[in-house]
Amino acid sequence: xxxxxxxxxxxxxxxxxxxxxxxxxxxxxxxxxxxxxxxxxxxxxxxxxxxxxxxxxxxxxxxxxxxxxxxxxxxxxxxxxxxxxxxxxxxxxxxxxxxxxxxxxxxxxxxxxxxxxxxxxxxxxxxxxxxxxxxxxxxxxxxxxxxxxxxxxxxxxxxxxxxxxxxxxxxxxxxxxxxxxxxxxxxxxxxxxxxxxxxxxxxxxxxxxxxxxxxxxxxxxxxxxxxxxxxxxxxxxxxxxxxxxxxxxxxxxxxxxxxxxxxxxxxxxxxxxxxxxxxxxxxxxxxxxxxxxxxxxxxxxxxxxxxxxxxxxxxxxxxxxxxxxxxxxxxxxxxxxxxxxxxxxxxxxx
Amino acid sequence: xxxxxxxxxxxxxxxxxxxxxxxxxxxxxxxxxxxxxxxxxxxxxxxxxxxxxxxxxxxxxxxxxxxxxxxxxxxxxxxxxxxxxxxxxxxxxxxxxxxxxxxxxxxxxxxxxxxxxxxxxxxxxxxxxxxxxxxxxxxxxxxxxxxxxxxxxxxxxxxxxxxxxxxxxxxxxxxxxxxxxxxxxxxxxxxxxxxxxxxxxxxxxxxxxxxxxxxxxxxxxxxxxxxxxxxxxxxxxxxxxxxxxxxxxxxxxxxxxxxxxxxxxxxxxxxxxxxxxxxxxxxxxx
Lengths: 350, 286
Fold this sequence. Notes:
The complex is a heterodimer.
Chain A lengths: L1 H21 L10 E6 L3 H19 L1 E6 L4 H9 L7 E5 L2 H7 L25 E14 H4 L7 H5 L8 E4 L5 H8 L12 H11 L3 E5 L4 H7 L5 E5 H11 L3 E16 L7 H11 L2 H11 L2 E2 L10 H4 L3 H6 L4 E2 L2 H20 L1
Parallel strand pairs in A: 1-2, 1-3, 5-6, 5-7, 8-10
Antiparallel strand pairs in A: 3-8, 4-7, 4-8, 4-9
Helix pairs in contact in A: 2-12, 4-15, 7-8
Chain B lengths: L17 H23 L7 H8 L1 H33 L3 H15 L3 H12 L4 H9 L13 H25 L3 H9 L4 H12 L1 H16 L3 H6 L7 H10 L4 H31 L7
């Protein structure tokens, strides 16, 4: 249903783009054409439109058609049916190794894309890190009083840190939090000791008030004090705190950093334009602007030059560089997610 | 209320239904066949996916939970919907329009909006608990109304009530009121006339509503995902996850086929029931 809608949208957009490019282009816009970007949609994509796409169109004359609801299965379906409608996709970290395995990506052109400011861990032949998020321990400052939680161990310590707890209902991030809470040193986290993780989870299984599945739920539950503390994404907490003035805070200590990458699906129709758009989105100054608007960390570390100390403190990239965070291991999860999900479902129904 | 179309009575050219059949074949039958083949080809023929479903205790538990939640929601819908539909079917004019509007209003509201509204009403510091605790002082500790089984059933009943009420209302309005009057004139008390004459006459409506709601209830995933707790994992949630996050299409297809089979079993049971009712003297409608 969604896929059909998006395909239709993209088709309509492509048709519109084709119609536009059929009009004799003004000399200044000699390099006309289109590029289709698929992202998460919503407020993030609105910010990307404002920071990246509008300026890209103005500068290059290439029209950016941005569509929401990017998903790896859709990319796979497009590539397999020989009908790749997306030129640049925003990819969840795990999708990169999964897509390499399934041969879904084009190689990036590093003649066009400048990887200089991007940490080596965030770039490979097929993808380049573009935005970072922190899976943090967030809490309601009023509910925790003068004893704010400081690490995953606090979430597990129901006596020392009373209150209602929330956890993500899925193995990703939860297993990491369970191991870190159990005393595993951050640099020895991967490969995950799965048995130990589930044993650690057993200890809080019945103390978790809400096993949530939808990310937007969490700031609401924390703000209304339905929950005292929960694992969640830093950007949502920051935006609710800024926009609603909710008494929310978070601990970056041992938080997990996840990264969204930009990649080009195989046989994309506007490959050349795709490389140009990726380079445009890789620009440190523009990434700094996006970070200021959304709290999403930059993939390009050079962006910090353009941010104040206070602005940096809201960003995952910054806390990662300070050594507070652990980098989420996409390769391990790409190999193990199915088995972990099965084990998770069996575990939680017990 | 004729339920079966008699083809012999239809003398027009049959090719008129060809476009409809073609549409059904391409957008309905085709994808289902693809789903079936995905579930047993990976890439060669295999029953491994089905074996996994039926030998793993967790998946059997998920099938059972989905089934149980659908049955409980159906029973609650009938219990709440029957009296509501009775009142609705007895009214006319503006009052009926207003009541109908009240029934349909939630029906037209987006499911996510409804679910989030329920969270606000049902949560620990939600409207219900605050009134019961602070205003009335009836309870000392908040009731656990959401992020558990109770929350899922409340959310699902809220979603499924409007169709239940509409079907029951239609069945009740088609009952000939003179039959109830006749029963009473023959000495039945109003209560007896209601239970012995009116309720049996609305039985086809009750059955139709029950089957429709049960089948709809089997496929829920938004409501249990948001209002449920650790234990409320339904088949539809699992299928959604296998397709959109794990890219495990073969296993997702097998789960979908099992769900489809349960749904069809429900339908077959319904038609059996209908046929038996139809065969009873006096129960037929020609």
